[in-house]
UniProtKB/TrEMBL annotation:
This is tRNA threonylcarbamoyladenosine biosynthesis protein TsaE. NCBIfam families: T6A_YjeE. One of its GO terms (molecular function) is ATP binding. GO terms for cellular component: cytoplasm. GO terms for biological process: tRNA threonylcarbamoyladenosine modification. It comes from the Bacteria. It is found in: Cytoplasm. Belongs to the TsaE family. Keywords: ATP-binding, Cytoplasm, Magnesium, Metal-binding, Nucleotide-binding, tRNA processing.
Length: 152
């Protein structure tokens, strides 16, 4: 798995990166977003959803846990998931998240709540807040993403 880092300054750049990323996602992909509160996970997810055609607001799924989007609202089905409120992997079993992979893109905030072994094929972003407020995205790029990643 290759690792790559990107520095983004401001919410606009985070949204723009998400929109660029949207051109390369496929059904069955998992985009895993890690980072502390306020790091920009939901902003990146919103940019990705905008890039897939979402015109309305993309609410944070913090309370719903899973926020689905379907065609024609977006160009391919998406499940935006926020696992922050889960206490452990056993609580996620009833969500049946892997079932979404048969016909959707899965965007997961706080994937660490399911343990390190969850979705080894995921494109993982760790978002850190830099001094001055910029965000550093460190991407763990799995083999299935190597060719696509080089085009982003």
């Amino acid at each position: 798995m290759a690792e790559s880092g990107i520095v983004l300054t401001g919410e606009g750049e985070m949204l723009a990166f998400g929109r660029r990323l949207a051109a390369f996602v496929r059904i069955g992909d998992v985009i895993a977003l890690e980072g502390g509160l306020g790091a920009g996970k939901t902003t990146l997810a919103r940019g990705l959803l905008e890039g897939l055609g979402l015109e309305g607001e993309a609410p944070s799924p913090s309370f719903a846990i899973v926020q689905p989007y379907d065609i024609p609202e977006v160009s391919l089905p998406v499940a935006h998931v926020d696992l922050y409120r889960l206490d452990g992997p056993e609580e996620a079993e009833e969500l049946a998240l892997d079932e979404y992979l048969t016909d959707s893109l899965l965007i997961v905030e706080w994937p660490d709540r399911l343990g390190e072994q969850a979705w080894p094929h995921a494109l993982r972003f760790h978002i850190a807040i830099e001094p001055g407020g910029a965000r550093r995205l460190t991407a763990d790029v799995p083999g299935a993403w190597t060719e696509r990643w080089s085009q982003i």
